[in-house]
Amino acid sequence: MSEHLSGPEISAWVAGERTPQSDGHMAACTECQARAVRLERAVDWFRGSIHAWSSLPASSARRRSLPAPARWTLVAATLVILAGVPIYRNVERQRAAEQARADSLLLEQVNASLSRPVPAPLEPLLNLVSGESQ
Amino acid sequence: MTATETPAGQLQGFDDVVRQYRPRIFRFMLASTYDRDAAESLTQDCFVRAYRNREGFRGEATLQTWLMQIAVNLVRDWARNRRLQFWRRLQAAPQPDVVREWMPSPDPTPEARAMVREQVAAVWEAAQSLSERQRTVFLLRFVEEMDLLEIAAATGMKEGTVKVHLFRALEAVRERMGKSK
Description:
The complex is a heterodimer of chains A (134) and B (181).
Chain A lengths: L6 H9 L4 H9 L1 H26 L2 H8 L2 H48 L7 H11 L1
Helix pairs in contact in A: 1-3
Chain B lengths: L13 H20 L2 H17 L10 H19 L1 H10 L4 H5 L8 H20 L2 H11 L5 H8 L3 H21 L2
Helix pairs in contact in B: 1-2, 1-3, 2-3, 3-8, 6-9, 7-9, 8-9
């Protein structure tokens, strides 16, 4: 018997590219037959599995491929984030306004304190002196 | 010749055409895209296009081949429009449970179960690694069981080109099976 068919020759034979030599060898060699059968059988099984996949009802296929709880969690999380952005911005804006008001008040107090001619405890005395002079 | 025997006559009862060929077209779309929603949408597009172009069906090929030709073109356009996204999806597509669990016989032994799973996985992975044309030819030949001339008519390739793609696809499968041993 001639040498066994090579891997590519087995693939070619299964693909239908057959010559009198490859047919003759295949008819006589159980080992090459087994290799060709193994390849054909794997492809047949693949076909069977694809047929089963495509026959699956759409609803059950969707349950398998898309886990609904995860999807809804994602949707809910997105909504929370989208709703939270304006709230967060509003809170930030309010906080900034309060801070500005507090800063302004403090500045007024500082200005008032600096503009006094005498310290606060001496102000009644100053008022008295200025009253007498009038 | 009666109306239903003419090429256009075969498309008279379009509901029947859809009922008869939809499973096959959907299966091809699903195996080509690995995406159930896309497959549903493309299958619908296929029949819409067939209906709009029904006057163009001259009966040079069978109705099945004509519909498959439309399906192949739609898949090609779909894949080209989403080239990167499609490639990524294809590379990452895991076997659905129904494919992983599928068995050719009802009560296989644990050894037979393991062998079927291993070999189906090898073909699945090999199919993912093929070029778009190789995969189309492979699916039409080995999933849809079309002959070489029908494939040539559906894809617009020469018969010799179909043979080359088929050979390369089978080589990829054989090599992948060798690796998974």
